[in-house]
Amino acid sequence: MLIVQKFGGSSVADVKRIKNVAGIIAETFLEGNDVMVVLSAQGDTTDDLLAKAAELNQNPSKRELDMLLTTGEQQSIALMAICLESMGLPVVSLTAWQIGLGTNAEYGSARIRRIDTERLRRELDKKRIVLVAGFQGVNKFGDYTTLGRGGSDTTAVALAAALHADRCQIFTDVEGVYTADPRKVPGALKLGEITYDEMMELASMGAQVLMNRSVQLAKRYGVELEVLSSLVRAPGTKVKEVVKRMEEMKITGIAKDENVARVTVLEVPDKPGSAFRILNAVSRAGINIDMIIQANGRGGANDISFVVAQSDAEAVEKALRGVQSAIGFAEVGLDKSIARISVVGAAMMSSVGIASLVFEALNDEHINIQMINTSEIKISIVIDAAYADRAVAAIHRKFFEN
Ligand code: ADP
Ligand code: ASP
Ligand code: MG
């Protein structure tokens, strides 16, 4: 069997954790499997490197940032290889460049284009444990790129797909995917299984346990994922196309994202094309938006609001100022003190009343809802960030804790 195992930053944070993971890898290998391992940078290394860069330059080029960040994963694979060597095991560590993991040119959020499996196959044929640096790629200029935060998950899934691996295991610091972040909601329940679509929504809406693009890739290539703990031996969560589910589960999970901002464009002229020109200006700046609301307004003008990632807020403001006089709106405002709470579940489609239960939970806590958005398997609401944890806890109690 070919097994791909990915270990996140906390799983390899220090010498003790590295030895622990080496034990898991060794066991899998000694059972007779081909083993390919993807590692993240140790602990908070990526954040620490970003902080160091910021001390030197508030606006560094994305190329040099990627050059810096890829060193974190390279350290991890070399250290793990050194540890496995000490156990007498055959091992080789490889960077993205060495395995021909090509991406597009987008530094900081590159997309994988191809993986040259030849070197990987050769190493596996030599019966070596293969350690691959996660999160990184190489673009057409021969420069290192990174795949975006949490990108090692995507590296693991891409390798599993390219090599038609039999299993893809994502080891982390919790025992699987839960109905809410188990570190924030003590009553959160571990899910035995979850569909790709539900996981994709949870991941996109702030559940960082898996990177959303890794789930997208897994769905596209039919790679079944297992999320499990590197510290506790317990069955994890399977992420797959179809799941068997208990009838009574109205929703599957709740996610929270505080890294969002609301953009409000005031007094937009009420005529065809206004909304288009506003959203077009934002999209030309390469920024994704969510939850668009138009409030019908006073005297031939409307207010248009939408949600963006907090890190994009200033860029949106700049893009909109650039078209302000051409479109003729009065003002653009940013609010960063919001949180988006999302309730996800495939059963939502067939069960009425889920939205009203969500609203009831918030009403019980006297939490005011600022924006609402619904889709077939998701309800998102925007509230004041100060109440975010209370809101998640209240919704969780309503659905899971009685
Ligand atoms: P890694 O370093 O292994 O990639 P991450 O920190 O990226 O780990 O993701 C694991 C974390 O995701 C957990 O520690 C947990 O706090 C958080 N998390 C958020 N939502 C969920 C959820 N629904 N289920 C499990 N973990 C979640
Ligand atoms: N080290 C990178 C990050 O912190 C990639 C990863 O951990 O998946 O985002
Ligand atoms: Mg992660």
Explain what this protein looks like in three dimensions.
- By secondary structure, the protein is an alpha/beta fold.
- It has a domain at 2-172: Acetylglutamate kinase-like (Carbamate kinase).
- It has helices at residues 15-30, 45-56, 62-86, 117-125, 152-162, 196-204, 212-221, 274-284, 313-327, 354-364, 388-400; strands spanning 2-7, 34-39, 91-94, 101-103, 112-115, 129-133, 136-138, 144-146, 167-172, 193-195, 225-229, 237-240, 253-257, 260-269, 290-295, 301-309, 331-335, 338-344, 371-375, 378-384.
- It has an eight-stranded mixed sheet, with helices on both faces. A four-stranded antiparallel sheet has the order 13-18-20-19, sandwiched between helices.
- A hairpin with a 2-residue loop joins strand 19 and strand 20 (378-384).
- The two termini are 43 Å apart.
- The protein binds adenosine-5'-diphosphate (ADP), aspartic acid and magnesium ion.
- Aspartic acid binds next to helix 5.
Put the structure in a nutshell.
The chain is 35% helix and 26% strand. It is α/β, with parallel strands linked by helices and 402 residues long. A hairpin with a 5-residue loop joins strand 15 and strand 16.
CATH class designation of the domain at 2-172: Alpha Beta
Q: Per DSSP, what share of the residues sits in E-state strands of 2 or more residues?
A: 25-35%
Output the strand order for the largest sheet: 3-6-2-1-9-11-12-10
Average residue pLDDT: 95
Q: How many β-strands, per DSSP? A: 20
Approximate helicity band: 25-40%
